[in-house]
Design a protein that fits this description.
The chain is an alpha/beta fold. Helix content is 27%, strand content 10%. The chain has a 3-stranded parallel β-sheet with strand order 2-1-3, sandwiched between helices. It is globular, with a radius of gyration of 16 Å. The C terminus is likely disordered.
Length: 142
């Protein structure tokens, strides 16, 4: 299962997407640079695998890096601390987290949460948004 949260502003406001050509983007999370996690169960093996040397493909981090303007700086950090996020001057943050790959009942879990360190990474990325004046209304509305 995947979920994409796209905060592109309210009508009449400046749009968030597409991103400006000159930006500093933080890409974070356990699944951003892990093709095995992105493929999930049944894709490579029955229960799935972790890593980037198990099949051909493009990770989300690679896709972002290959797509943005050459003047855009993309920084990858698996689990950035709040201080790192706050002090690094990022224009935007992209978080890619999820379950570890599995198939059928082997990965079933009654606790429907993102595995650690996903929640702490999410909190730290949101702190980036809290410091952006343009998104203050968006954060308050949720």
């Amino acid at each position: 299962m995947s979920r994409i949260d796209d905060a592109n502003g309210k009508p009449g406001e400046e749009l968030l997407l597409p991103l400006p050509k000159k930006a500093k983007i933080l890409v974070a999370g356990s699944h951003a640079d892990n093709l095995g996690y992105q493929c999930g169960g049944w894709t490579i093996t029955w229960q799935g695998l972790s890593g980037n040397n198990i099949t051909d493909g493009t990770t989300i981090l690679q896709a972002i890096t290959n797509t943005v303007h050459p003047e855009t700086e993309v920084v990858y950090e698996l689990n950035p601390s709040a201080d790192f996020v706050k002090s690094s001057g990022f224009s935007y943050g992209i978080l890619v987290v999820g379950e570890h790959p599995y198939a059928e009942s082997d990965g079933d879990n009654l606790n429907l949460t993102i595995p650690a360190p996903g929640p702490s990474t999410l909190t730290n990325i949101w702190r980036l948004w809290l410091h952006r004046e343009a998104c203050s209304d968006l954060v308050q509305d949720h």
